[in-house]
């Protein structure tokens, strides 16, 4: 992200969260522009289920494309009954930061992409405020098909689908995972503690640092909680060595 764009993203996010008065990091205004973010490799692309056009393409084992190929036109759990698209995941295949939600919503089900609705737009703002681009992180869900009426995924559905998430984590090898929302945090951590108490504290999942925080969809309904998410994201930024606003 360019320097001016970084400054704008921070100011936009602060305004959106009601965090006026936080300085734009001096480093952002003065340091040289960072190198272009790495381009996602071809195996990051969600190719969709095998079709007559792509079924002959051989994906390397241990790649995101290979995992997608293994999922295929998955019928391993009942969430397949009413889905429109499998929402595999998207982003940089070697991202340092991975966001994980519980499952696709209506917009995601229709488009086959994670976090593309109103909550996705807020997630984009959160990412940009961290001086990152969506193309530099990886975004996935615990289950890859939409639960009816956006209910929580049931234990048998998590059991069927979570192994694919674990495979994605093994390929991407993020330094930090951010669990978005109560369901994602409680499910990944096998901990029924309220998200208001889980958030902001480092935990571990698959041997990797995990930060639970509120889901962007929750923030759309509870704007006053946004300040806590900004707090959690700054913890993540510290862990990743990203530049923080001066006043934090
Ligand atoms: S939620 Fe996961 S396991 Fe269930 S049908 Fe969809 S891809 Fe398969």
List keywords for this structure.
248 residues; alpha/beta; Uracil-DNA Glycosylase, subunit E; 6-stranded mixed beta sheet; 10 helices; 6 strands; 39% helix; binds iron/sulfur cluster
CATH topology, anyone?
Uracil-DNA Glycosylase, subunit E
Shape summary: globular
What is the H level of CATH, i.e. the homologous superfamily?
Uracil-DNA glycosylase-like domain
* Number of separate helices: 10
Determine and state the CATH class.
Alpha Beta
Number of strands: 6
Judged by helices, strands and strand pairing, the structural class is alpha/beta
Rg over CA atoms: 18 Å
Identify low-pLDDT runs.
20-57
CATH A-level architecture: 3-Layer(aba) Sandwich
What is the domain total for the residues? Answer: 1
Task: Describe the overall structure.
The chain is α/β, with parallel strands linked by helices. The chain has one domain (62-240): Uracil-DNA glycosylase-like domain (Uracil-DNA Glycosylase, subunit E), CATH 3.40.470. 39% of the residues lie in helices and 10% in strands. It contains ten helices and six strands, in the order H-H-H-E-E-H-H-E-H-E-H-H-E-E-H-H. The chain has helices spanning 3-17, 26-30, 64-71, 106-111, 118-129, 155-172, 182-189, 195-198, 216-221, 226-240, and strands spanning 90-91, 97-101, 138-141, 176-180, 203-205, 208-213. The chain has a six-stranded mixed sheet with strand order 1-3-2-4-6-5, with helices on both faces. Helix 1 crosses helix 5 (118-129). It is globular. The structure holds iron/sulfur cluster.
